[in-house]
Amino acid sequence: MADSTNGSSQKSFRVIGTRPIRHDGIEKVTGRAKYGADYSFPGMLYGKVLRSPHAHARIIAIRTEKAAALPGVKAIVTGDDFPDIPGTTAMMGELVVNTHYLSLNVMARGKVLYDGHAVAAVAATSPHIAEEALRLIEVDYEVLPPVMSAEAAMKADAPILLPEIRQKFIAGRTDPGSPEGPDRPTNVAAHIQFQRGDLEAGFRAADYIVEREFKTATVHQGYIEPHNAVAIYNSDGLATIYCSTQGTFNVRTLTATVLKMDEGRIKVVPAEIGGGFGGKTTIYLEPVALLLARKSGRPVKMTMNRAEVLRASGPTSGTWIKGKMGATRDGKITAAQFWMAYEAGGFPGSPFAPGAMCCTAPYDVPNLLLDSYDVVVNRPKVAAYRAPGSPARRSPANRWLTSWRCAAESIRWTSVS
């Protein structure tokens, strides 16, 4: 029986107030539950990834002959083994991804854009042989200066990560009626603007104005289970992938896209998952394992170690946020102006738009101007993390409101009355 909290009569519930049995509980407490890395098949090979030691560098040459000659090595792949993918958009959990950049994130071609970026992969008869083979792969780099923050990336003289991102395109898409901007490369991949009311009038009506600047750091989801994939490619062209994922159909669609395969010829089997929090809605190892399986003709298992997870999988964005809010003495918000830059990592696709949508969502702000930017930096490509884009912008907004609560003590206030 559930006690009433509003004076009404007691009522029985089928679930509330009971202790239902977890359907997956027995398998987990007895150790029978199978996670992605628990799957094994006869003749299976073990895959390992060679990752860039540089945050920003041009790939001059990759030599794999010595690694291929090592006994036990059955297949090697580099960026040359991946097809060229046009830049179309696809859903990646709660975010939208450009498939061309997704492919480049899975395996670098021409350039590496963060420390840990994959440049080659090996499949061998044991993990130790695969690791030894990685040490035999020779990569020549031309090291380039990195940009590690949105603030540095947005400077006029900042090194450019992706020359195809043009300032002219961004300006034209943001305001199609404006004169064309300069046709030069930029690290700003996208810009969104929201506006409402009369901003200047709103600030004139304010008794108090608070102006602040905040920066938040890149934060990883920190799930316990590393990324993993076991891939099987049959002689009839049908493929099966076993992995721990938050999006089974995402994995199938994105892997098929990256490898230019018919989506109907790939089956994805979701394993138990040891945490994800948004970070396992994309692909990293799945297409690599499948390509190695196709080249070797044998099943291939790949598992990241903890260092690889932190170096090469997507955290949430670091941000740089500036803003100004005005309010009357009785606590009514009259105007707000925000400027936000979200770090996307090495490729476009930060949650800059959801962050902008949520910035003042709980509050009545009659006069508003909000600009949000998607900025590429030499860090791992970001992924979703629990309400993507929202926590970073909510913390500054709450601090502004906290400042107003301190108005009676005249703490950090500028009176305009």
Note down, in words, how this protein is organized:
The protein is of the alpha+beta class. The protein is 24% helix and 27% strand. The chain contains twelve helices and 18 strands. The strands form four sheets. Strands 3-7-1-14-11-12-13 form a seven-stranded mixed sheet, sandwiched between helices. A six-stranded mixed sheet has the order 9-17-16-15-10-18. Strand 16, helix 11 (352-358) and strand 17 (368-376) form a beta-alpha-beta unit. Helix 11 (352-358) packs parallel to helix 12 (390-405). The longest helix has 16 residues, at 390-405.
Structural class: alpha+beta
Q: Which sequence of strands runs across the widest sheet?
A: 3-7-1-14-11-12-13
Oligomeric state of the chains?
single chain
Specify Rg, calculated over alpha carbons: 25 Å
Sheet with the most strands? Answer: 7 strands, mixed
Mean pLDDT: 90
Q: Please provide the count of β strands.
A: 18
Order of helices and strands: HEEHEEEHEEHEHHEHEEEHEHEHEEHEHE
Low-confidence stretches: 1-5, 408-417
Number of helices: 12
Q: What would you call the shape?
A: globular
State the end-to-end distance.
58 Å
Q: In percent terms, what proportion of residues is strand?
A: 25-35%
In which range does the helix fraction lie? 10-25%
